[in-house]
From TrEMBL:
The protein's name in its UniProt record: CLD23 protein
Pfam families with a match to the protein in the record: PMP22_Claudin
Annotated Gene3D superfamilies: 1.20.140.150
Topology class, membrane: Multi-pass membrane protein
Protein's organism: Ciccaba nigrolineata
Entry keywords, A to Z: Cell junction, Cell membrane, Membrane, Tight junction, Transmembrane, Transmembrane helix
Intracellular or extracellular location(s): Cell junction, Tight junction; Cell membrane
Gene Ontology cellular component list: bicellular tight junction; plasma membrane
Name of encoding gene: Cldn23
Phylogenetic placement of the source organism: Eukaryota, Metazoa, Chordata, Craniata, Vertebrata
Similarity comment: family membership: Belongs to the claudin family.
Record field: transmembrane: 12-31, 84-105, 117-139, 159-182
Domain of life of the native organism: Eukaryota
Signal sequence range: none
GO molecular-function terms, A-Z: structural molecule activity
Length: 188
């Protein structure tokens, strides 16, 4: 009989979820908003400090007057969870790109049959990249209230941290979906 020309559903799921995960973790890595500090004593009531893993910004909510590149007077960037995130988030992004290239080669664009082994390997790489971004996001979340902040201020999770979480989870799910391709290798 003729070989089927259909790409397995698990591969399609992996190829949809992982680029979405990449976009979310990229935004989470670059945007300076892993944590928001508000109601800082002796500061205007509408001031919000946004802290990321690379930058800090202050914004007045009333005027939307925003200034980034703020001085790190409290040693926020010296903290281990921030340092770990600075190392692991970019590493995760590079691995995700690598995984997507391998996945594109494995899922077949120009062959009759997908290369299941290659797609499975890509799945493992993407799974690993998702875990690599999930670890710093989780650790940062656990330490969110312990990281240095002006005394008496209010701390909340920032959108960059949420996006990093979501991106990590999408990459893990997409990686698992692609890793299902190994099942096909075993059948052969």
């Amino acid at each position: 009989h003729l070989p089927s020309m259909r790409t397995p559903a698990a591969m399609i799921v992996g190829l949809v979820l992982c680029p979405c995960g990449l976009l979310l973790t990229l935004t989470g890595t670059l945007a300076p908003n892993w944590r928001q500090v508000s109601l800082v004593p002796d500061q205007p009531i509408d001031l919000i400090l946004e802290q990321g893993i690379w930058d800090m910004c202050r914004e007045r909510q009333s005027s939307h007057d925003r200034h980034c590149g703020q001085a790190d007077e409290l040693g926020y960037f010296e903290q281990v969870p921030v340092r770990v995130a600075q190392g692991m988030m970019p590493t995760s992004l590079v691995l995700t790109l690598l995984g997507l290239v391998v996945a594109a080669l494995g899922v077949r664009c120009w062959q009759k049959e997908p290369r299941h082994l290659l797609a499975g390997v890509a799945g493992l790489v993407l799974l690993l990249s998702g875990l690599l971004s999930l670890v710093p996001a989780s650790w940062y979340t656990q330490e969110l209230w312990a990281l240095p902040a002006p005394f008496g201020s209010t701390l909340v999770v920032g959108y960059s941290l949420v996006l990093s979480y979501l991106g990590s989870c999408l990459e893990i799910l997409g990686g698992l979906a692609l890793a299902l391709s190994f099942h096909h290798c075993c059948k052969e």
